[in-house]
Amino acid sequence: MTPKVDILILGAGPAGATAARLLALQGRSVLLLRGPASRNPHAGSLPPTIAEVFRSIGVLDAIEQANFYPDLGVVRWWLDAEAEVESYVEGSRGYHVQRHALDELLLTLAESAGVEVQRNSRAPRVELDRGIVEHDGGVTEARFVLDATGRAGLIARQIRRFWDPRYRTVGLCGLLRASETFDADPHYNLMEAYDRGWAWSVPLSPRCRYVCFYVDASIARDGETQFRAELARTVEFQRLFGDAELESPPWVRDSSLYYSERYAGTNWMLMGDAASFADPLSSSGVEKALLSAQFTAEAIGRCLDRPAEAGEAIRSMNAREARVWREHAESAARTYAAMLDLYDTPFWRDRAKPPEL
Ligand SMILES: Cc1cc2nc3c(=O)[nH]c(=O)nc-3n(C[C@H](O)[C@H](O)[C@H](O)COP(=O)(O)OP(=O)(O)OC[C@H]3O[C@@H](n4cnc5c(N)ncnc54)[C@H](O)[C@@H]3O)c2cc1C
Fold this sequence. Notes:
Layout: E1 4-10, H1 14-25, E2 30-33, E3 43-46, H2 50-56, H3 60-65, E4 69-71, E5 73-77, E6 84-87, E7 94-98, H4 99-112, E8 116-118, E9 125-127, E10 132-135, E11 138-147, H5 156-159, E12 161-163, E13 169-177, E14 188-194, E15 197-205, E16 208-216, H6 224-233, H7 236-241, E17 245-246, E18 251-254, E19 258-260, E20 264-265, E21 268-270, H8 272-275, H9 285-305, H10 310-338, H11 346-351
Parallel strand pairs: 1-2, 1-11, 2-8, 5-14, 11-21
Antiparallel strand pairs: 3-7, 4-7, 5-6, 9-10, 10-11, 12-19, 13-16, 13-17, 13-18, 14-15, 15-16, 20-21
The structure holds flavin-adenine dinucleotide.
Residues 10-16, 33, 35, 44-46, 122-123, 148-150, 152, 154, 171, 173, 202, 212, 253, 255, 272-274, 280, 283-287, 289 line the site of flavin-adenine dinucleotide.
């Protein structure tokens, strides 16, 4: 007989692990499939607004105990040659995180709440009609199947995903290490706009920084040559990081925007990046994923406990995810448009108009 669970979740990033934990705390049986870990180190900044989200999903104490590197503000060389320094208000701070550490912590918390986790288990096939998932550990039937596979979008791609046809963006990412402390505040993010993109740096220690150049996919190449070429087009990043060593060859991460035709049906839901992708400009992808997971867990609780309300729960999930993506896309387009006075180049022009929905 096929084993059955209430909920099977594909993907154990922030969205998957969080929804799994919240659903287990509701008393549901949850199976979470965690695909193989990424080969490249990924890091991100979580601005101070994330603390309230961590609190509302019940993990703030665990996050505080994990001692992530504090995020105290942003220095931008953006519309002006002068640095614009944004310091977070006294008493509030965000976190600079190595993503494998954050993901592992959220996964451990899910396991402690009773979630069954299968590691290194990919799900190559999902039969949505019957709620049957074939995965590396076997075949499982679930009342709800949740897609939290991020950009891979295992179910999302069966539903229908829309890409903005006008452009694709990628991040050229690398980990830089210096023999001495960088000449920048060790807890601040750095951002610099230049003619064909923008640069972003997340500190992980006073001598180690994660650096990404966001450029059009048409010019992107893996490897150090392209990474150094982008660095050379900047002014401040070149000054700060021109002499730093790369820990490993830089890599390309697709950062193009997309959204889905629908986000929920009678036995499936899409969460976090599986549902839609917010421009990294906002630095709020993890926050968006956690909120999406929280809303999804509530919607499923409603569907399972009060079947008469299932239609309304699914409608509001669809409306919410569509609104969230639209707001993110419009906000990113406004930021790109504001730059046109300085750089009226294809990169900034193409991204300055919000996508037509
Ligand atoms: C270059 C770049 C920089 C970014 N910087 C930031 C930042 O500074 N701050 C921020 O908040 N956000 C940032 N983001 C966005 C952020 O990374 C995402 O929004 C966030 O990780 C979404 O979480 P998620 O759980 O939805 O998806 P993910 O984190 O992508 O997790 C999906 C998981 O599913 C797994 N998976 C995939 N396929 C399968 C399968 N078939 N079976 C099982 N598992 C599978 C993957 O291995 C992964 O573990 C950045 C994104 C990019 C591309």
